[in-house]
Each structure stands twice: as C-alpha cells, then as structure tokens.
Automatic annotation (TrEMBL):
<feature type="binding site">
    <location>
        <position position="191"/>
    </location>
    <ligand>
        <name>[4Fe-4S] cluster 1</name>
    </ligand>
</feature>
<dbReference type="Pfam" id="PF13484">
    <property type="entry name" value="Fer4_16"/>
</dbReference>
<dbReference type="GO" id="GO:0046872">
    <property type="term" value="F:metal ion binding"/>
</dbReference>
<keyword id="KW-0408">Iron</keyword>
<feature type="binding site">
    <location>
        <position position="155"/>
    </location>
    <ligand>
        <name>cob(II)alamin</name>
    </ligand>
</feature>
<keyword id="KW-0963">Cytoplasm</keyword>
<comment type="similarity">
    <text>Belongs to the QueG family.</text>
</comment>
<feature type="binding site">
    <location>
        <position position="134"/>
    </location>
    <ligand>
        <name>cob(II)alamin</name>
    </ligand>
</feature>
<dbReference type="InterPro" id="IPR017896">
    <property type="entry name" value="4Fe4S_Fe-S-bd"/>
</dbReference>
<feature type="binding site">
    <location>
        <position position="244"/>
    </location>
    <ligand>
        <name>[4Fe-4S] cluster 2</name>
    </ligand>
</feature>
<keyword id="KW-0170">Cobalt</keyword>
<feature type="binding site">
    <location>
        <position position="188"/>
    </location>
    <ligand>
        <name>[4Fe-4S] cluster 1</name>
    </ligand>
</feature>
<dbReference type="GO" id="GO:0052693">
    <property type="term" value="F:epoxyqueuosine reductase activity"/>
</dbReference>
<feature type="domain" description="4Fe-4S ferredoxin-type">
    <location>
        <begin position="179"/>
        <end position="208"/>
    </location>
</feature>
<feature type="binding site">
    <location>
        <position position="216"/>
    </location>
    <ligand>
        <name>cob(II)alamin</name>
    </ligand>
</feature>
<feature type="binding site">
    <location>
        <position position="241"/>
    </location>
    <ligand>
        <name>[4Fe-4S] cluster 2</name>
    </ligand>
</feature>
<dbReference type="InterPro" id="IPR004453">
    <property type="entry name" value="QueG"/>
</dbReference>
Length: 312
C-alpha cells in the first residue's frame, strides 16, 4: 500500500471524480433511527399509494448494515444530470429532465463497478460489499444527507449546494471502515416556492410528499387510470414532473453536466406535440429503447397522453 498517497477517503474521492461522479461522501452503515420513524409514519398514512415495494424490506431499508452483511461504510455518490438542452417544441408534452438521456441505471452501474474494483485492487483486497443505483431498498437521500452531500429540501429532493437537485444518487455499501463526512445545515430558510408551485398540492408540508397526488407518481408508478380530480392540473407533464425543482433557487445555479454517456437523445427532445399524440408501439420501442421513459411502458405513456388531451 506504500505506493498510495493520501488517505483512503481522498483516494476514493479522487477516483470517483475520474470516473465521472460529481460528488462523494461517506457515512457509517448503521440504523437511520430518525428516518425510520418518518418512513413508518409516511407508510402508515398510505402516502406511498400503490408503491407497495416501499413497505417491503423495511428493516433493511432503514439500516444498510442489514442489507449488506458486515457493512461498515456507505460511500454515497452524486451524478449531475442538469441538461443544457431543452425540448424543442414548447407545446409538446413535457418529460422529466432525468429521462432526456440514456437510462442512467446502466451508465452509473458501470461507474460503480469500476470504483468498487479500484478499492478492492488498490486499497483493500479484503473488500466485500455491494453497489446500487436505485436498485435496492435504500434510503438514498437520507444517506446522502448523512454523508454531507446536502440537505433534504422542502420539495423532498436532496439539494447539493453547487449541483442543485438534478442529481442521481448511488452508493457502495462496503466492509471497509472510513471516517464519516460532516453533514451540512439545511438551507431552505423561509422559502416555500416548491410547496406553493406544486399544481396538485402533493407537498402536504415541508419535506412531506403525498405520492398519490404527485404527477411523477401518477404518470410513472401508477398503473391505474389517472383520477379525474387531476384533470387540468397536469401542466402538460407526460412523464414525471420537475416543477418543484424548476422553481427552486438552488437548481438555478447548477451547471449543465458534461457526461457524454448521459447526453440527451435528440429524437426524444425533438418530438412534436402531434408525434407524441400519434406515437405507435413500434416508435415507442425505437425512440425510448435506452431511455428511462420505457419504465412507464407504451400503455402507460398513451394513458398519460390521452389524459392530457382530455383536459377540459
Ligand atoms: S413533482 Fe410535481 S406534482 Fe410532484 S411534488 Fe413536485 S411539483 Fe408537485
Ligand atoms: S424551493 Fe425553496 S423551500 Fe423548496 S426546496 Fe428549494 S429552497 Fe427549499
């Protein structure tokens, strides 16, 4: 190990940057006691709607050391996805920014794998652990806060002081003990822009989202019809909704990402209103082949488009 210069944490941070991550922090793999109570109350109030998986593996979700045996540290990584591009046609149905490019799961998984191999090969040969990007019961935002990467805004998103909130969170849960990063203070202050701007009043109080009312849930996770009470309130959103982030001053400062692998797909951004409306199953498969939009499936996307059209 004498060839290595710097602490293990510094080396890992530096490698994470080389691999394309924008921020990196460390926290202990332990029970998230306060967050556990909040999650329990949220689930008891059925605010997760039909996302039944949120209630599964409860103990693992609130304790990374139960998810990964022998875990000591969670390395939390952020990837900026702030796009520089916009959808070309202002009247076209709007999709969430995270879905502009290739599905981030593939891109980030590959980077996580490389970081894991680096730690095992160069730092700690006895390394054991797992890595995840949105693929396991993990309270990613809470872990990011504990790892000093930001705070949870009143809009429920993680906010990083420089990157804003258009960030993907991923993590390595490993058996190597590393010193935890220092958490930072929340900095929403007296602002309530996100709560005021939400078209469906889904932010029922600061940091509390009633998913059943959230356009993001209604257009992606929800497998039923969209309830009529939301007619006329969808703000032309066909897949996801960024409104509570668009109005947040912390996102105005974020710089566009430069990650080639997350580059926006021109074919998606150039879809006109008419082409969205006439989209066939074949076109859907072709255009969204590598996109996160395929999560909604063709039938879900068609349902969303028809709901927008039926607006009175
Ligand atoms: S994503 Fe949209 S609907 Fe959901 S809380 Fe934010 S503003 Fe409201
Ligand atoms: S809009 Fe204001 S209150 Fe909402 S998350 Fe941003 S800073 Fe916080």
């Amino acid at each position: 190990m004498d060839v290595l210069k710097g602490t293990y944490s510094q080396l890992i941070e530096s490698k994470a940057k080389d691999l394309g991550f924008d921020a990196c922090g460390f926290t202990q793999a332990e029970e998230l006691t306060a967050e556990k109570e909040i999650l329990k109350k949220w689930l008891d109030n059925h605010m997760h709607g039909n996302m039944h998986y949120m209630a599964n593996h409860f103990e693992k979700r609130v304790n990374p050391s139960k998810l990964v045996e022998g875990a000591k540290t969670v390395i939390v990584l952020l990837t900026n996805y702030t796009p520089k591009e916009k959808q070309s046609h202002p009247d076209a149905p709007i999709i969430a920014r995270y879905a502009y490019g290739q599905d981030y799961h593939y891109v980030i998984k590959d980077q996580l794998k490389q970081l894991y191999s680096y730690i095992k090969d160069e730092i700690y040969p006895s390394l054991e652990g797992r890595y995840f990007v949105d693929s396991a019961p993990v309270l990613e935002r809470s872990l990011a806060v504990r790892a000093g990467l930001g705070w949870i805004g009143k809009n429920t998103h993680l906010i990083h002081k420089k990157l804003g909130s258009y960030v993907f969170i991923s993590e390595l849960i490993i058996n190597l003990t590393l010193p935890p990063s220092e958490p930072i203070k929340e900095a929403c202050g007296g602002c309530t822009r996100c709560i005021d701007a939400c078209p469906t009043q889904a932010l029922t109080s600061p940091q509390t989202l009633d998913a059943r009312k959230c356009i993001s849930y209604l257009t992606i996770e929800n497998k039923e019809s969209i309830p009529q009470e939301f007619s006329g309130k969808m703000e032309n959103r066909v897949f996801g909704c960024d409104i509570c982030q668009e109005v947040c001053p912390w996102t105005w400062k974020s710089r566009p990402h430069t990650n080639e692998k997350l580059k926006a797909v021109t074919k998606i951004l150039e879809l006109t209103k008419e082409r969205w409306q006439e989209l066939t199953a074949e076109e859907f498969s072709e255009i969204f082949r590598k996109s996160a939009v395929k999560r909604a499936k063709y039938t879900g996307l068609k349902r969303n488009i028809e709901f927008l059209l039926s607006k009175k």
